[in-house]
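User: Structure please.
Assistant: Input sequence and predicted structure:
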Amino acid sequence: MTTPDRSHGRKSIRESLKPRALDAESPDLVGIWRADIITLFPDVFPGVLGASLTGKGLKDGKWQLHTHDLRQFGEGKHRNVDDTPAGGGAGMVMRADVLGRAISDVLRRRPPCPIIYMSPRGKPLTQARAQALAEGPGVVVLCGRFEGIDQRVIDHFQIEEISVGDYVLSGGELAAQVMLDTAVRLIPGVLGNQISTEHESFSNGLLEHPQYTRPPVWEGREIPAVLMSGHHGKVEDWQKQQSEALTQERRPDLWEASVSYTHLTLPTIYSV
C-alpha cells in the first residue's frame, strides 16, 4: 500500500517533458538531509521546527521534512492501528502489521538511515547522538501512542529507541520535534554561524557558561567586569571557570565523565 506523504519546505525542481499530477508523491530534495515522520497526527508538523532559523532552513532547502499518516495504513473500514495487549493489561498497543507497512513504504522512498522510535525506555538523547544524526543522510522517526508499539517491529527493523527525559508524554510527536531540533540546527548552513554551536552546553562535555548583554547595569546588577575588559584571554579563562563550576554543581555526572576523559587522553610525561 502506498499513500502520498506531506512534504514541508522547498520542493526540488527537475526538468521533465512529462507533466506531474497535482496529487503526485511529494518530490525529494536529492542529497539533502531528510526527516520522515510516521505519526497519527501529521498536522502537528513542522510545529516549532517551522519557526526561526530551523524554519528558514526548511524553507530554503537546507533540510527536508516529510510526514506520513499512520492511519492510512490501518486495518479494516475504520483504519484501526492498535489492539489489546497480548497477555492482558491496560491500554492499547500499536499493531505490528500496520507499523510494518508504514515503515516499509517510507524506506522505499529514501536512502538508508537510522529508524528511531521515541520512547521513555530508550537511551537518553545526547549532543553526541544529535551530532551523529546531523552528519548522516537523515532519519525516520516513529511517533508512538497508547501503551507503545509491538516489540516485533522494533526487532525486525532494528529500530533505535531514544528518550528525551525520565517522564512520559501522551505521544512521540513532541519528543520527535525535540530530537529533530537538536540535529537539524547542527546541519551546516541552518544556523548561519556554525561557530555558535561549538561553545554550547554539552559541545565539550560541560554546561555552557553564563551569558550577558546590554544594558551594562540592570536592577543594580552589573555585567562581570572581565567581560567588559576586552582581554580575550581573560574572558576565555573566566568562561571556562564558570562552565566547570556550573557543571560540578548541577551535573556532577557530566563533570565526572569529563574528568575521567581528560585523565584518559592526557599524554603521559616520563622523566629521564
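Residues 132 and 142 are 18 Å apart (CA to CA).
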